[in-house]
Structures are given as C-alpha cells and as structure tokens.
Amino acid sequence: MDICRLYKAELKELFKERGEPSFRADQLFEWLHRKRVSDFERMTNLPASTRVWLASEYSIPSAECVRRQVSSDGTEKYLFSFSDGNCVETVAMRYEHGLSVCVSTQVGCRMGCRFCASTQNGLVRSLTAGEMLAEVYKASELFGEPVDSVVLMGIGEPLDNFDEVIRFYDILTDSSGYNLKNRSVTLSTCGLVPEILRLAALKKQLTLSISLHAAFPEKRSSIMPVNLRYPLDELIDTCRQYVALTGRRVSFEYTVIHGFNDSEEDADRLTQLVRGFQSHVNIIPVNDAGRGISQATRKQAESFADKLTARGVNATVRRTLGNDISAACGQLRRDTVAN
Ligand code: SAH
C-alpha cells in the first residue's frame, strides 16, 4: 500500500494502533515529504522494528525516469514508470517565478476529447496521491530546482480521480512536508459538474481552470463528448457557483482550431459566457496531437485573443513550451515499459 498518500493524521492513527508514540508519524512524514527518501531503511531515527513492519506492509511509490527529453526552450519531459510498469509523462517548465511542473493524474484518460493525444487509448488506471507526489519530487530532482508551482494539466482528468487528487494537493501543501504554497496549484478540468461542486464545498485555495474550447453547445459536443453529459450552460452556471462559494476566480482554457472556433460569432458567444466572471481566458493554439487537426499558428491564436480583448475580455495567449519534444498541451501520452 502507498504510504505517501496518507495524511499525517492517518499516520498517527497507524502508530497508535501499533502502540508506538505519535511523534514517529511526524518523523515518517518528514522523511517521506521533506527529505524524500525512497527507502524505509534510511529512516535512521525510526527503530529497526518499526522500519520492518512499515516495509512489510507499505511501499514508497517511486517514479523511475525511463526517458528524458530536453527541448530547445529548456522545457524537459520525463517518461516516468511506476512499480506496475505503467508510465506517464511529466513536464518541467521554467516560468518567471521558477519551476512549474505539469503533473499527470491518470494512466490514459476516458474523456475522449477529439484533439487530445492523452485519451486516444482510453483509461488504464488512476494514479495514487503518492505516485503524483513522486512525479513532482522526481521532476524537481532531475530539473535541479525546487518546484514553484504545479499544474494538474498532464495526462488524465483530475476530477475523475477526485479523492487522490485532493490528497495530493493537501499533502503537497502541508507545511511540514514539501510546503508548496496552497495558491500555487492549478487544477484543469474538461468540466465534470458534480465534482466541481464537490471541490467548491472543500473551499481549497487552488485555481480552477475549465477547458472550454467552444462556445456553442453543438460545437463543443462535437469535440468534447463530456459536453453531452454536462452541457455548456450547466457548466457555466456551476462555475458561477464555484466563484460564489470559494471566492476564487475561475480561468478558462480555449484551444484555437483555426476555421472551427475562432470566428467573430465565436468571440461574441464566448464573451457572453464569461461575462460577469472575474475571469481570465487562456488561449492555446491547437497543437498537433496526431489526430487529424492541424496545428494553429501563434498568429491565429493572437488574432482570436485580440477579438476577445476588443470585447473587454481578459484574454492572453499561452506560451507554447516543449513543442519540439511533444511536451505541449494535448501531446502527452501514456506508455508502458514493454513498448
Ligand atoms: N483533462 C483535464 C486536464 C488536461 S489539461 C482538462 O481537460 O482540462 C490539458 C489542456 O490542454 C486542456 O485544456 C486540454 O483541453 C488542452 N489540450 C488538449 N489537447 C490539445 C491540443 N491538441 N492542443 C492544445 N491544447 C490541447
């Protein structure tokens, strides 16, 4: 069982059941999330007998780097393998503030968005919180810098792995662990309405980002099957509730597919949708994900952003990083060591 996915309070319970003092939970948590050792044997301030039962019942998930690619812009992409041989990709990018890590939350994805490579072969399994933490810790070690922010924008739909993603967030931001600032995490979703409401109820300080990609219902359904289950109007209404409940702003992602979703009418409709939000629209030129949708240029994305700005919408074009190593949005794939 993954020990890194356990809250400190749960570790304390564990030690209590064994009749061991609760300060050992503090020591263990620190080894796992601050010193980040990969082996119980190295936890030298724990008694040998404790290390024995820990090692026999629990494991420390590791992300073994089986491929490392470095982009000409400095972005790095890692193919990480977990203990069962399943692999995901994790991306490390340098931003003005420091290192940003793009974390995968599932091996594959079952959302079926037509423009995204990650969903092409469906979902294999969800990752545990400990495996997601291992992605962050290992990426930081390989990149050689501490992590400044985390974006849950890798492979998978974070809200389709709700409980583990929340654990991941809570543990990563625990002040006695890695201590990432609790506002430094962005969770991106294709729009699972019930889970957005569940998230709102938890009142976390993370930033919620919604993958919109189309402002008309039929258009959105044609590229994002999730829209058939949770239609656009319901999604936007849910975002309003999210803002009201959490006091946090919501941001939107909009991938420009030239000739499909970047007309004046699209800009009009998108403006109506995000009106009244303290929101921000991130424009992404669609990247080639090998799915028959041709790459949009930065110019096309900028031209659509200009249309929005002219309508009073706060819109910026996201920097495309790591394109030459297929590390950009929509280009990450699951893999297996055997392949
Ligand atoms: N499943 C979540 C997390 C993935 S985040 C979500 O859908 O939000 C990855 C972001 O990149 C999403 O906004 C996704 O829609 C976008 N994306 C996917 N394929 C893309 C592509 N080919 N070009 C540009 N952006 C893409």
Detailed description of the structure:
- With 339 residues, the protein is α/β, with parallel strands linked by helices.
- The protein has two domains: 3-57, DNA polymerase, domain 1 (Orthogonal Bundle), CATH 1.10.150.530; 64-338, Alpha-Beta Barrel (TIM Barrel), CATH 3.20.20.70.
- It has helices at residues 8-17, 23-33, 48-57, 129-143, 162-172, 193-202, 217-223, 226-229, 232-246, 264-274, 298-310; strands at residues 64-70, 76-81, 86-95, 98-102, 106-108, 123-126, 147-152, 185-189, 207-211, 250-256, 280-285, 315-317, 335-336.
- Strands 1, 2, 3, 4, 7, 8, 9, 10, 11, 12 and 13 form an eleven-stranded mixed beta sheet that branches.
- Helix 4 crosses helix 5 (162-172) and helix 6 (193-202) runs parallel beside helix 9.
- The longest helix has 15 residues, at 129-143.
- The two termini are 26 Å apart.
- The structure holds S-adenosyl-L-homocysteine.
- S-adenosyl-L-homocysteine is lined by residues 111, 113, 115-116, 153, 157, 188-190, 211, 253, 255, 284, 286-287, 289, 329-330.
